[in-house]
From TrEMBL:
S-adenosyl-L-methionine binds at T159, G180, D202, N253. The lineage of its organism: Bacteria, Bacillati, Bacillota, Clostridia, Lachnospirales. It comes from Enterocloster bolteae 90A9. Coiled coil: none annotated. PANTHER family: ELECTRON TRANSFER FLAVOPROTEIN BETA SUBUNIT LYSINE METHYLTRANSFERASE. GO terms for molecular function: protein-lysine N-methyltransferase activity. Belongs to the methyltransferase superfamily. PrmA family. It catalyses: L-lysyl-[protein] + 3 S-adenosyl-L-methionine = N(6),N(6),N(6)-trimethyl-L-lysyl-[protein] + 3 S-adenosyl-L-homocysteine + 3 H(+). This is Ribosomal protein L11 methyltransferase.
Amino acid sequence: MKWKKFTLTTTTQAVDLISSMFDDIGIEGIEIEDNVPLTEKETKGMFIDILPELPPDEGVARISFYLDDDADVADYLRRVEEGLDELSPFADLGARTITASETEDKDWINNWKQYFKPFTVDDILIKPTWETIPEEHKDKLLVQIDPGTAFGTGMHETTQLCIRQLKKYVNRDTTVLDVGTGSGILGITALKLGAKEVWGTDLDENAINAVRENLEANSIPEDRFHVLQGNIIDDVSVKEWAGYGKYDVAVANILADVIILLVDEIPAHLKKGGIFITSGIIDMKEEAVKEAFGRCPELEVVEITYQGEWVSVTARRK
């Protein structure tokens, strides 16, 4: 099936009104393109360390929507024009032009799977659940991951940096705190390495189901990996759920700016001598992260490792 794509050129100030109008007439799944910079609130929790540089914001926005072959295109376009006429007294709609094009039908949820293939991190094989084990890797420790709509396949350098640090510090008596667990790849790898128990937190509700599905794929009981949606930095209930002074290892593969905030939070959850493994740090943010660790009297940096342009900082609670 081919989809008909329609793009309306308007103004940024009219985007919210038009989006609401589209919803009222049954148009869903719109795309909005503009050059308005994201606010700090909007980027909080996003897996973006370096935002792209945008051209100057000239107040122009493009809103695209899709109609399938079975839709009454003429009727939808008539209703769009009527809706725009009704909105015009209340907002500057700009050019108000609509262009049409076609796009092929794609399974957007599953299309990315063609790029996720089995790979190794030293003696660990990480593979998607739908791939078979390559013959040459059958002797490796197997971790199966299907990220679904949660973040984390393990292919990114930052995840691999964390896995290599987990290998150094995890044993059969280890209890792990996995902050920003995503697909659960780091916590599940820790369990595969022999960890006793993992407690994970994530801002994304999709992480809850992703972790459960990946536990099943790896034949790990759910009672060994507890997961909660929430923010351990500023939510008291999440802090208390995680518990205090109980973890041998904490791991956070997030953004540098979030790690800086976690430096003041994580020591309370670690045992004395506990290890805090971090990554998600682009090289240009390395100094800022190291300075944050340096300001924390309860943590001392024990190792800094690199892969490509990414950095991992590991510290110990004094």
